[in-house]
Amino acid sequence: MKTGKTALITGATAGFGEACAERFAREGYRLIVTGRRKERLAALQQKLEEGFGAEVMPLEFDVRSREAVTAALESLPDNWRQIDVLVNNAGLALDLSTIDEGNVDDWETMIDTNVKGLLYVSRTVIPWMKARKSGHIINIGSTAAKIVYAKGNVYCATKAAVDALSQGMRIDLLPYGIKVTAVHPGAAETEFSLVRFKGDESRAKDVYTGFQPLKAEDVADVVWYCASLPAHVCINDLVVTATAQANAYYTFK
Predict the structure, then answer these.
(1) Can you tell me the distance from the alpha carbon of 72 to that of 56, in angstroms, rounded to the nearest whole number?
(2) CATH number where 45 lies
(3) pLDDT per residue as tens digits for the range 190-218
(4) What is the C-alpha separation between 154 and 97, in angstroms, rounded?
(5) Is residue 246 part of a domain?
(6) pLDDT band for position 22 (cuts 50, 70, 90)
(7) What is the H or E stretch that residue 226 is in?
(8) What is the rounded CA–CA span in Å between residue 163 and residue 60?
(9) What is the pTM (predicted TM-score) of this model?
């Protein structure tokens, strides 16, 4: 059943973003889905339209580019700017290294994507929500925001920034009735580790050996739950892990 509501999901071509797009489509939302990979966006659009009868607006851009973010979002017709839910999902980790041996290019990619990209998208969308005095921003963080682990330095710092920005947004947007939620997943078997280890499938698979990690759909269910609560209820901060995982450091295998 169509709800007449619209969700914008960044990084929608894989992992949490794709699973969230499917969940919101199933619940009758219109979808604005963004990503860098044109072919995957087209495939996602087809899946959402054919599988769920959803109305879909794909936007191809890299959140690291302020100009690209602004141009793409400002190109939306007025009737697509009434965004009810913004899921800031686009993000990544690159490699594991001590701070003195870190790859500066990797640092910049993580900071530009995880922090600045979230800010660029939010900066464009929030004024539309403020004008309507309605909306919900859901920022995808990580258990890495809550506890730093060895060789995770910069990635952990970017997710700690997402945590802090979520708190700041919640305060700033309080007078406008806009909800802000940070969802912090633990280990989840998506493309995350494959990206972190730059295509090393064996190393990526080892991360999840010995226990049952979260699936992307598990996180999408949590995101949907937060978005589906009554207007007077807001989950500000939520950490979700596999049963075998206590936090970013302790996992029982």
Answers:
(1) 15
(2) 3.40.50.720
(3) 988 899 989 989 999 999 999 999 999 99
(4) 9
(5) no
(6) very high
(7) helix 216-227
(8) 26
(9) 0.97
CA distance 185 to 251: 14
CA distances from 85 to 1, 186, 236 (A): 18, 23, 15
pLDDT digits (tens, 9 = 90+) for 92-132: 999 999 999 999 999 999 999 999 999 999 999 999 999 99
Structure tokens at 99: 């701070």
The rounded percent of the chain whose pLDDT value lies above 90 is 94
Nearest-CA neighbor of 45 among 57, 30, 36? 57
From the number of C-beta atoms within 10 Å of its C-beta (0-12, 13-18, 19+), residue 101 rates as: exposed
- pLDDT for position 1: 77
User: Would residue 97 count as lying in a domain?
Assistant: yes
Question: Tokens in use for 153?
Answer: 């330095």
Q: Tell me: pLDDT of 89 over 90.
A: yes
Q: How confident is the model at residue 10 (pLDDT cuts 50, 70, 90)?
A: very high
Instruction: Give the H/E segment covering residue 59.
Output: strand 56-60
State which amino acid sits at residue 97: S
Q: Is residue 156 part of a domain?
A: yes
Q: What domain range includes position 33?
A: 6-240
Residues 6+ apart with CB under 8 A from 193: 203, 204, 205, 207, 208
Domain-embedded: residue 249:
no
Q: Whole-angstrom Cα distance, residue 19 to residue 40?
A: 13
Q: Determine the length of the chain.
A: 253
Number of domains in the chain: 1
CB-based contact 249:243 (threshold 8 Å):
no
Q: What is the mean pLDDT of residues 43-60?
A: 97
What amino acid positions are annotated as catalytic residues? 155
